[in-house]
Structure prediction request, 399 residues.
Amino acid sequence: MADALPLVTLREARRIALAAQGLARPRPAGPVGGRRLLALAERLNLFQIDSVNVVARAHYLPAFSRLGDYPAALLDRAAWGKPRRLFEYWAHEASLLPFEYHPLLRWRMARAERGEAGWKSLQAFARERRGEAEAILSRITAEGPLAASDFEKGRTGWWEWSGAKRVLEWLFWAGKITTATRRGTFERVYDLPERVLPGTIVHFPTPAAADAQRELLARSGRALGIATARHLRDYFRLSPADAAPRIAELVEADVLRPVRVEGWREVAYLHRDAAIPRRCEARALLAPFDPLIWERGRAEGLFGFRYRIEIYTPADKRVHGYYVLPFLLRDRIAARVDLKADRRRRRLLVQAAHREAGAPDDTAHALAAELRLMAQWLQFGDVAVDNKGDLADALRRAI
Prediction:
């Protein structure tokens, strides 16, 4: 059956994926405003949040990859300022999403509230420890926005920081609270959704779970351009049981079109709105949590690029470095660099630079330009290249 499906070449698949992710064309010229940032959020569906801050926090980097030297304060304002445009919830992982996704994720909140979703270590708060959760929720209701550290002072037992944080995270999973802002070293401050989100969103009708999941998969397909069922459900972390019937319905509705991709074993699905550009002109450093590459099997299938985060690998066993960003040049991943922001000396450190097989001849010069742009975005004055890696010497000369 699969052999009868239309064939998409691997090079076409790469171009489809890059176009869907906003990486096929050169970055737009001129200053980047809030409207352009929100348009990117709509295209990607979400920005994944991660606490690692070796270069910049993960949610800032996909916008840099696509928009260049944009003011990171635009994302802060959209996420936690006024007027607010994004909210936090568990989507791919912890994520910032446009408001319209709140109704589409309430089925997950409802499952967490029943103890059927979310981390297993928290599910007791849906059942035998529910009274503890209700007590913390009552305090937030009465006092306003609170963080886990606000429950620490003068408290013991389950009121201590670790216990309170666990309760707060269950309430967050269940949609009882949301993030009002962030404090200090990125600590969540929680409040009731009705005091944080617009009334039009809070009171928007909740769709049936199947309808919401189908819409999430359709949006995943649009953001990916071309993807297998595994890739589609990974975007919003849907289970195979939830995703399979919804993908079949999207095929029936001609939103997703089954195809074969050269070299892929699984059937792929081409979104009906996917563009196939004749050429790609990308130049971008990609965060480890960028949606183009966060599903490592898809990154390998598209680019022949095997990637792992080596943060938790012992230093003497690391192959490419501690915090490695792939470098996308046109329609291939041409290199990878181990980067670190030296904030005290205001410089971007390239601790290692490795060339990928088949990298174009202009890789070092293109990467040097991208690193200078990143340093400018970070408001650093310098890029320093260490001597580790087979691209290091050429990159140092180019910089």
